[in-house]
Amino acid sequence: MELLQRVLFTLVGAASVCYFVIKVALGHWKRRGILHEKPKKPWGHLKGVGRKRHVAEVLQTLYDKYKGQAPFIGFFALLKPMLLILDLDSINYILLKDAKYFMDRGLYYNIQDDVLSQNQLQMDGIEWQHMHLKLKSLQWQEKLQNLLPALLKVQQTFENSLKDKIPKTVAAQNVTELVEGFNIDCISSLAFGLEGDSLRYRNTQFHHMCKSYTKSNFNIYKAYLAFWFPSLARLFQYHVYSPMATQYFQKLIAEKLTEREYQRTQSSHFDFLQLWCDSRKISQRNQMYKKLENQEIVGQAFSFILAGLESTTTTLSCCLYELALQPDIQHRARSEIRAVLAKHQSKLTEDALNDLVYLKQILNETLRKHSPYPFLLRLTTKEYELPNSIFMLQEGNHLIIPTSAIHHDAAFYARPDKFDPEHFHSKNVQQRPPCAFLPYGMGPRACMAQHYVQQQMLVCLVTLLQCYSFTPCAETIIPLTYDNSKVLRKPKKDIWLSMQKT
Ligand code: HEM
């Protein structure tokens, strides 16, 4: 009896302490007099997220309710207080004009114990700056046009395999798998120096590692705790990525670097790996260039998988889905592709890609409607007073910019729920503030690969739409639903369509 009483007292005591901690934590914005929606204990504003709702839906509801009332409102990711920025002028200051106050994203990384986390998406502070300077000195943005031949080599393999695998009509094709194969081939070839042909050989080790690089016991709650208490997580050597994947990518890069450094005098083709590799030779001759260490190259190459694989696969598969549902738009895109190829002697040159105006409108409309990255994150690194307001952002404040909600705002897009490439007709683009479309973010921490990735996706769409038409089939899920358990917004199930040779 006495034991039972003790257990009961302990339980009641523990529950009271938890209740008190939660109540104090969720009172954070109330105590500071910041406008906010009443949070639910203990979820904050994330009740149902992961199961019934995607985080993008929560942000959309709050944005629709509070925009115009204040430049930002208080938000709770479970117990973590954050600020949800609602006003486009403030967003412009945060991302661009006064970006020096918001250079961090505040994600967890651990360079010593988790090598793959040494990538520009996760890193912050001095580590991010150090790498940013090294990459900048390579002038790779200026050299982007030189990458096109390497990309077209992957495209040629893809096209040949398509002809063999899908000679005529396929009643139901998993297009998510199809475009994912192309994207993996681009990554393996341009970033890891490993040629691939995913349409023919899917079960390669590289393919497997691209799909399963997190630890097998990866737990979203542990990751959340690492986000809350990064220094503690570093102390306990918490790592996100599987040792097997880490070793695999390290070994692969080491082998390929040796191959490129010693077996080839001058590179015959130019790709990302060659660019990183050349940094070593150039840095010996010119102090301005900073040598990239092996581990740093591993982190750079891995960022193509981490930041680029699901985002490109989602964008391309959602794009084909929308085109299948709207044959008129698909027909117009195909006519444009054929006219542009005819004008450029069937060659996909830089100029030819630039001429694909309507296809780019379609890509942008896909990024607007399906926004794979539904929000941006920033961490305030110095106290900052928002212009035209009395609000002071404090050092350590985490900010969320709800890009997907902005992309669905009827004030900027005439028919936000409809897939309509006319939203990106030049005359409509001119009438919108630049911050109304942020699929790649903006400012010094914007997507590093923005221009390259657009080329990669255009090349894939040209290859597919030139030869095939896409229509819905019995397996096509209409309307499309999203996977609520992921932070990136991606369809819940793979997209299946019927493909007919044109
Ligand atoms: C459709 C494809 C893609 C989309 C929509 C996309 C979008 C984004 C967004 C929204 C961010 C955050 C920007 C910000 O915080 O302001 C980002 C960052 C980043 N992306 Fe992409 N991305 C795509 C593909 C790629 C690819 C293929 C790579 C390959 C390297 C890549 C590399 C990065 C890196 C390294 C960062 C972090 C940059 C930094 O903080 O310095 N992304 N991307």
TrEMBL record:
InterPro entries: Cyt_P450, Cyt_P450_E_grp-I, Cyt_P450_sf, Insect_CytP450_Detox. The chain crosses the membrane at residues 7-26. Belongs to the cytochrome P450 family. Keywords: Endoplasmic reticulum, Heme, Iron, Membrane, Metal-binding, Microsome, Monooxygenase, Oxidoreductase, Transmembrane, Transmembrane helix. It comes from the Eukaryota. The gene is 106080793. Its main location: endoplasmic reticulum. It is found in: Endoplasmic reticulum membrane; Microsome membrane. One of its GO terms (cellular component) is endoplasmic reticulum membrane. Pfam families: p450 (PF00067). This is Cytochrome P450. Heme binds at C447. Its cofactor is heme. It is a peripheral membrane protein. The keyword Endoplasmic reticulum applies. GO terms for molecular function: heme binding; iron ion binding; monooxygenase activity; oxidoreductase activity, acting on paired donors, with incorporation or reduction of molecular oxygen.
